[in-house]
Fold:
Amino acid sequence: MEKDHVRRAYSFACLDCGHGWENTYDIDLTVEDDAQILAVYHLDGRLVPSPLQSPRCPACEGRKIRIMRPGRVASARRHET
Structure:
């Protein structure tokens, strides 16, 4: 069994209400003996579900979410002002 810890950031945009946000996740990865990968996500020290499988908008609870590389929401906000 192999273990690793990584940190990944993602930008999100809700296609229902237009809300955008960014989060950085601490991810504990375990590669089982049968090569199956188990990923456990933490956000601000709290265990959370994978943001890639069924994300929800924190503003409207919408499920139509676009996931982008980090910095996209911050970049869009700079262009608005």
The chain has a mean pLDDT of 90.
